[in-house]
Amino acid sequence: MYHHLNSDRCSNDYAIFETHLQFISQHMISVFPSDSKLKKNSICLVFDDGYFDFYHLIYPLLKKYNIKALLGVIPSVTLDTTGIDAKIRLSPEHNHLFKEYKKATFCTYEELLEMQDSQLVQIASHSLTHVNLLENNIALEDELKLSKSILEEKLNTKIESFIFPFGKYNQDILDETKKYYKYAFRIGNGINKDFNGVNGVIYRIDADNLEDASSIFNFKNMMKFRLKSFTKSLVGNK
Questions:
Q1: pLDDT digits 0-9 by tens, 209-231
Q2: How many Cβ atoms sit within 10 Å of the Cβ of residue 112?
């Protein structure tokens, strides 16, 4: 699970991140949820929110190292196109990006289509408005179904993956999500045998704020991630 490059929060340093992708390209196979054949070293990179720096900084690196990524998009803050300068689009701090979305702080549909056409980027819904789905008076059908419909219309593709905003959900929300999506992603620092996930939801390792290229994959961490998934498989979605 990633968010930004070179931002003030939820981010990675550009140089460290590029070395991280280099390591992945040499030791792992990047996959989409829809890929049918998975190997032991398969990895799915998932980026939340669809900020402009994904198109401007991360996408060129994906092309350089031929790595696939799933990108969670929020239709309510996604513009069709823009002529705003990249420096302006990148300038707001993390906490202001939603408020400043009319400055195209998120990828536009034009950019999403370009990346989708490369076959290196697959689009997921990250809900309609990026709201905590556990809050009261949430229009859950809009967050799930309407977001999917908008993305499918704008991008002319089938949207099969949903990423829970803030990683928040319960079993009822998961059950409703699975009516519209084949794959549901959460936060959780666990690993998965396949895209069935753990109790029907796919765990993700927090890869923001990397200290180096590969330590997130060391033996100690991998054992910790496996233990987390095993424990959650016993206690369920709590």
A1: 999 999 999 999 999 999 999 99
A2: 23
**Mean of pLDDT values over 71-94:** 97
- Place 238 in a pLDDT band, splitting at 50, 70 and 90: low
Dump the DSSP string for 158-212. ---EEE-GGG---HHHHHHHTTT-SEEE--SS---SSTTTBTTBB-----SS-SS
SS3 assignment, position 30:
strand
Q: What percent of the chain has pLDDT over 90?
A: 97
User: How far apart are the C-alpha atoms of 190 and 233, rounded to whole Å?
Assistant: 11
pLDDT for 40-53, tens place per residue? Answer: 899 999 999 999 99
Residue 150 has pLDDT above 70, yes or no: yes
Residues in Cβ contact with 71 at an 8 Å cutoff, skipping those fewer than 6 apart: 46, 47, 50, 54, 107, 112, 115, 121, 122, 123, 124
Residues 6 or more apart whose Cβ sits within 8 Å of residue 153: none
Q: Is 90 helix (H, G, I), strand (E, B) or coil?
A: helix
β-bridge partners, 163: 185
As a three-state string, the secondary structure of 144-165 is HHHHHHHHHHHHCCCCCEEECH
Which residue is associated with the tokens 């987390």? 228
Q: Give the SS3 label for residue 117.
A: helix
- What the chain holds in terms of domains, given with CATH numbers, is 4-235 (3.20.20.370)
* pTM of model > 0.85: yes
d(CA 16, CA 153): 36
pLDDT at 237 over 80: no
